[in-house]
Amino acid sequence: MRALIALTAKSVAAVAAVVVLVGLVGASVRLLPWLVAPAVPWRLALPFARGLLSAVVEAAVLLGLPIGAAMGAAVFVERGEARAMLALGVRPARMVLALAGPGLLVIPFWAGVAALEGAPGSPGRLAAHLVEAGRALCSRSEHRVVDVPLLSVTWLCLKGGPRLAGRVPGAGGGLWFSAGSLDTAEDLRSFVLERVHLAGRFDGQPVRIRAREVRVRGLPSFGEGARGLSGALRGAVLAASALMSGLCTAWLVVRAGSRLLAAVAVAAAAAITMLVVLHATDARSMPPFAYAVLPISGMLAAVAASGLLAPQWRVAWRRAG
After folding, report:
1. How far apart, in whole angstroms, are the C-alpha atoms of residue 185 and residue 279?
2. Distance of CA 317 to CAs 62, 111, 321, Å?
3. Which of 60, 78, 180, 226 is geometrically suited to a Cys-Cys bond with 195, CB 3.0 to 4.6 A?
């Protein structure tokens, strides 16, 4: 069993590293416009960078474990060691269960990583981080204006205190506002402004308004709301889901004696399914127990893909039947 464990560990590490590398390249491309913008200090990009890093880490565990386990099992089969153990009467399930012990160590590790990340879990929280970071930078004498990315507003660093300024959304660009503070909803569909000055032209008429508080509702949703699962618990659930999907895929590979390409295709189908289900669950702000569908969806996708993509697996299922 040690050979299977070693092969799987190497494969999981390699796949996770590739996913992280590709994810970091993509994140750098998204961050680059902000990093080179003269009015956006690099410190203001840190909250958004943390959110991107969180997404990269989650993709690494959900892709790395199932695909790595499938690759390790496929190499174990191709080298003939799986056939030798089958000849000795060792069942595929017993071989794959040897991976469960080392795999369980991933769960507390990834739970700790998720707890340390502390990345904002929704566009509203991210926006709040960006707004507060911009206000803090305004207190430094070298900054006169600080652009806040994502919201398209700017902090004006005035002697009487920072003021947030920007165009009024939906007014055709003719109205501008300034405010002392901004609070956003989780999905950015509403926000609250305090100490507001409004000026400009609307329908060709000059407009000047002052208000202590302005509440805006009914905006198009920017993205998902608050996640139903976050922090260490989220990391543990994702790692456990990826582990269960990986064990299922590895068992399918060993039982059918599949080759590497077919094994990777089936594992990728399971991993991508889990990513899609995770995004849908987050977007609907489902309660924590709803995330139990994550490992189930991955295993069902692996079983379905094994019958569609690999003829030798259909033969194995008939024999099992």
Report:
1. 19
2. 26, 36, 6
3. 180
**What's the token pair of residue 144?**
């006169």
- In angstroms, the CA 135 to CA 138 distance is 5
Terminus-to-terminus CA distance in the chain, angstroms?
27
Do 211 and 186 sit in the same domain of this protein? yes
User: Is the Cβ–Cβ distance between 178 and 117 less than 8 Å?
Assistant: no
Gap between the Cα atoms of 143 and 24, Å rounded: 29
**232 and 84 in one domain?**
yes
For residues 39 and 148, give the distance between their C-alpha atoms in angstroms, rounded to a whole number.
Answer: 9
Q: How far is CA 28 from the centre of its chain?
A: 16
- Measure the CA–CA gap between 190 and 185, rounded to whole angstroms: 5
Interatomic CA distance for residues 4 and 80, integer angstroms: 12
Q: Dump pLDDT digits (tens) for 268-315.
A: 999 999 999 988 888 776 788 888 899 999 999 998 888 776 555 544
Nearest to 101 by CA among 8, 15, 18: 8
The verdict on 244 and 211 lying in the same domain is: no
Asked whether residue 30 falls in the same domain as residue 69, the answer is yes
Q: Which of 189, 286, 154 is nearest to 230 (CA)?
A: 286
Residues linked to residue 216 through DSSP beta bridges, in sequence order: 191
Please state the pTM of the whole predicted model. 0.70
Quote the domain boundaries for residue 237: 2-121+228-320
Whether 81 shows a pLDDT value over 80: the answer reads yes
- CA 255 vs CA 92, 113, 320: distances in Å: 6, 34, 10
On whether both 35 and 157 belong to a single domain, the answer is no
Vertex 33: Cα angle to 28 and 38 (nearest 5): 130
Q: Judge whether 28 lies within some domain.
A: yes
Instruction: Evaluate whether residue 133 is within a structural domain.
Output: no
Is residue 115 located within the same domain as residue 29?
A: yes
The H-or-E segment that residue 109 falls in is helix 106-117
Longest dimension (CA), the chain: 89
